[in-house]
Design goal:
Belongs to the binding-protein-dependent transport system permease family. With 235 residues, the chain is mainly alpha-helical. It has 10 helices and no strands. The chain is globular, with a radius of gyration of 21 Å.
Length: 235
């Protein structure tokens, strides 16, 4: 176990010097989380828009289910993906287990309900506000969805950033399906857990500093988007 003060100094040095292992882990984390966020937005925004503008039997039950899935335990998602991608699973022939692709799948499944639920609420509120105008223009459902997505773009960007923040901080699901393999599937959260258990606090703290910086950056962007949305609303 390293002295805490010494570990902090070494952590700052690793970040400042751009340590190769550190950069590799950070870049993989960003690639996995950004890809999962993009996929989640493609699916989640569409589902959210459909739920916002469509009325059908069982709609409320679907909304309740989506909201419940926002709290889905990450380890359960990881386990389900593991069972499907393992050699005995239905998708085992793809050979995706313990790869970044498996981690992307797990994160996508984890944050898609979040994007769907939040975007549905945003778009449904906006749809209620514009409902009479849409009826007067006799717009099709597709045209309504496109109009809502465009008008709510700033709020939906905030939703996407919330999904990314959830993905980048994930550890349970990705360690199950990724295996935390050095130079292959080791991301920031899994590396922090491993290095801490080994007593290597320098690298763990360095990764923690980067993760906190990313979280801070996401919050700054979210606030910037909200201010832009407010200015846009009163323009």
């Amino acid at each position: 176990m390293q002295d805490f003060g010494e570990a902090v100094g070494m952590a700052v040095s690793l970040v400042a010097s751009g340590d190769g292992d550190l950069i590799e882990i950070v870049l993989l984390s960003l690639r996995v989380s950004l890809t999962a966020t993009a996929l989640s937005c493609v699916v989640g925004l569409l589902l959210g828009a459909v739920l916002a503008v469509t009325r059908f039997r069982g709609r409320q039950a679907v909304i309740v289910a989506v909201n419940a899935l926002m709290g889905l335990p990450p380890v359960v998602v990881g386990l389900l993906v593991y069972l499907h991608l393992s050699r005995a699973g239905p998708l085992g022939f793809l050979g995706l287990l313990y790869t970044p692709t498996a981690m992307i799948i797990a994160q996508t499944l984890l944050i898609t309900p979040i994007v769907t639920a939040l975007s549905r609420q945003v778009l449904e509120d906006l749809h209620s506000e514009y409902a009479e105008q849409f009826r007067s223009f006799c717009l099709s459902r597709g045209q309504i969805v496109r109009a809502l997505l465009w008008d709510a773009r700033y709020s939906l960007l905030t939703v996407a950033l919330a999904g990314f923040g959830r993905a980048i901080a994930e550890v349970g699901a990705v360690i199950i399906v990724g295996g935390n393999i050095d130079h292959l599937t080791r991301v920031m959260t899994t590396a922090i857990a491993l290095e801490t258990s080994k007593g290597d606090l320098a690298l763990a703290l360095a990764l923690g500093l980067v993760l906190m910086a990313i979280a801070l950056a996401v919050n700054v962007v979210v606030q910037g988007v909200r201010l832009t949305a407010v200015r846009h609303a009163y323009a």
